[in-house]
Amino acid sequence: MSTDARDGYPIALAVDEGSQEIRTPLGAATVGTRARQGGISPSSRTDAVGRERRCRWCRHPLSRYNSEPYCSACSRHVPTAPSSPPRVAPEVWKREDVREALYARDFGRVCHLVRIGSSLRQSDMAELTGLSQAFLSMLESGVRRLTNIDKIVELLDGLEVPVELTGPMLRLQRPLDGCGKVSGNL
């Protein structure tokens, strides 16, 4: 037993067989620690070159117990797999309630039925149509109405409503290519 020079408290030092000695920051006392058998070694904090491993997103040092390339905070926000772009299910357009809402020009109900029928979020619908998520929310709840013909055409084209349900007048006019055919790009 010895005493700590700063506080005068006794310190017990123990060193067993197979343990390593680690010096304390003051350098006065040594403490024994058993060498790890199996598990993650302290050296796993470094990569193959010997550099300290850091989170790919925020660049903070990674824990030696973390085998992932991201820290725990950043891993919550990193997508697990590349997601496919949102798509409207083609069978939605065969439903009678969707057809009735299109005929009545109730675009809020159309958006709601298409979104629910295709298992999409409002943010997915916003990505498809080019309208804001807030506007789509107000449209679905009936607070706002869609009366601008350009926005109606943009909505119907973004949802890829079949021409037989909308008519050719409510579709975006695509430019003609050199052969006189409608090109696929806008």
UniProtKB/TrEMBL annotation:
Domain (HTH cro/C1-type) ranges: 122-165
Stored InterPro entries: Cro/C1-type_HTH, Lambda_DNA-bd_dom_sf
Secretion signal, residue range per the UniProt entry: none
Domain of life of the native organism: Bacteria
The name this protein goes by in its record: Helix-turn-helix transcriptional regulator
